[in-house]
Automatic annotation (TrEMBL):
Molecular function terms from GO: 3-alpha-hydroxysteroid 3-dehydrogenase [NAD(P)+] activity; 5-alpha-androstane-3-beta,17-beta-diol dehydrogenase (NADP+) activity; estradiol 17-beta-dehydrogenase [NAD(P)+] activity
UniProt-listed InterPro entries: AKR, AKR1C, Aldo/ket_reductase_CS, NAD(P)_OxRdtase_dom_sf, NADP_OxRdtase_dom
Keyword Membrane assigned: no
The protein's name in its UniProt record: Aldo-keto reductase family 1, member C2
Subcellular location: Cytoplasm, Cytosol
Key words, A-Z: Cytoplasm, Lipid metabolism, NADP, Oxidoreductase
Transmembrane portions of the chain: none
Subunit architecture: Monomer.
Organism: Macaca mulatta (Rhesus macaque)
UniProt pathway annotation: Steroid metabolism
Amino acid sequence: MDPKYQRVALNDGHFMPVLGFGSYAPPEVPRNRVVEVTKLAIEAGFRHIDSAYLYNNEEQVGLAIRSKIADGSVKREDIFYTSKLWCTFFRPQLVQPALESSLKKLQLDYVDLYLIHFPMALKPGETPLPKDENGKVMFDTVDLCAIWEAMEKCKDAGMAKSIGVSNFNRRQLEMILNNPGLKYKPVCNQVECHPYFNQRKLLDFCKSKDIVLVAFSALGSHREKQWVDQNSPVLLEDPVLCALAKKHKQTPALIALRYQLQRGVVVLAKSYTEQRIRENMKVFEFQLTSEDMKAIDGLDRNIRYLTLDMFLGIELQRSPNWQ
């Protein structure tokens, strides 16, 4: 971590801002709101913007980025933009066209980071979650190493400055790292990570391989019924986080974000509220003590908010289950 510039060096020589703005929003959020809040995030100081094909908002996020470039607020090189390859494009010949499609929506020449969104394949097509006549998700087989090689070609073509993965476990990462034809290592692994699910073992493994861990759902979760167990506890109501918030005169959310930064994790903060977007930038204004960090470490309960029950039991070619 480089606290002065609030960024971390990646294993390919590029740099990633350690605090990112997560742009995902539930379908009921109006698309024009995506433009507004992305502009607000850039105005507040965010330079790392995270999106994906699946979020169905890249057109709006791209518009916001371009408008802030046009008004002189930022230059393109100031913005670190992440997109993700969705599971319906898990054929080597579909990878580059998928990225081209995202770039066309964004109206940008390149993305700073392109990730494999999940380590499992869905039936190819335009429907993000293809289902059969019984309403069951339709899966496909995938050779993750072949997909990774196609990702490497996107980097070579200049369409993506860096490439990485998301939601990979250690074994799936090792499969990529041990591929005899490996040209570029993943620069990062973006996973669910928060005080109730701190990913200590995966973090240690990633650090040992010079792979940055990026945390999503760092504040708990948006609790959208389609994805999240509604009976799961609310992270930001945890007594330990609330006590530390009181001690440092910060919010529980800022304590949860600061925790990640101090353990070497890049953290995504998702909010569609202007006050909270601005507030999240205050994460650089204070520090947790070693005792504070130990107290938060002790909250780990192995609680995963994003359970993805639809993916359980699916075998990957040359790979174990996601969980």
